[in-house]
Amino acid sequence: MIKVIINGENHEFKQELTVLELIQYFNLNPYRIVVQINDNDIVEKEDFKEYKIKDKHKVELIKFMAGG
Amino acid sequence: MERYSRQIILPGIGKEGQERILKSKVLVVGLGGLGSSVAYYLAAAGIGMLGIVDYDFVDITNLNRQILYKEEDLGKSKTEIAKDELKRLNSEIKIIPYHLRLTKENIGEIFKKYDIIVDCSDNFDTRYLINDIAVLFSKPFVHGALLGYEGHVTTIDVKKGPCYRCLFKEPPPSGTTPCCREAGVLGALAGVVGSIQSLEVFKLVLGIGNPLVGELLTFDVLKSSFRKINFIKNKNCIACCKKESNNLFEGNYIDA
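Output (structure tokens, whole complex):
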């Protein structure tokens, strides 16, 4: 069981999951999202399939937006 | 100065602060939903020289949110109408219209004349161009953006913090992220985000408060929630941390 914070809200998952799995869990398009871990680390797109979300991670799924 | 009396009495402003506002030069890029709010509030407060950039003409679909325009303005140039409206609001300030699309070729000459840029544009090409030229000139800009029921604001000042590319490294592939035409937008959200952008400009001009440097403020209409996401300079950033040259980054935006 891991406990993480996603966009400011607490979530639990049975086990660690990859960034890509997390994005899919929230029905988001990986091309439209920037993923930040623990305020400092931006996960590169090519690493989405490998990067593991772990217990106590703070994750931001930030949408690209250009509307004005 | 009587017209500014209600802001002059605020702590941190005073007559000296108002003089700073009157001497400041701000460029608003985009006169759509965001730009309408920003231009109105900057003009009302007395920004002395207000540049306004847009290449577009008023369309009926603009009227749900682009409050600079009215039904009688359909088909007219946005910069022309905006200039007239802003001058009616405040005849004491200088309004400089630029009826054009910003490109690598013209952006430098325009930006040089201004202290602060406000990004109210509606496409990634322009947004990344604004970031890269602002980095090159070390000028601050206030970014604002909309998508559906959500909005973003951040202030980029590379002398003090990260640039836009430190967080959003490159634009998403073409066609993946909708604009207002495709995703929709409520006018009032543009008002909220544009108003916050305006307030960021005043904080920069007056040197008060904490501008959103290194912070992305997100607003969710449906949850009525504001959140701040911290972000830091990326030491490998292709715009603000590159080692070479004074040339505008040959990035992946096109000459529109």
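Residues 5-247 of chain B form a domain with the Rossmann fold fold (CATH 3.40.50.720).
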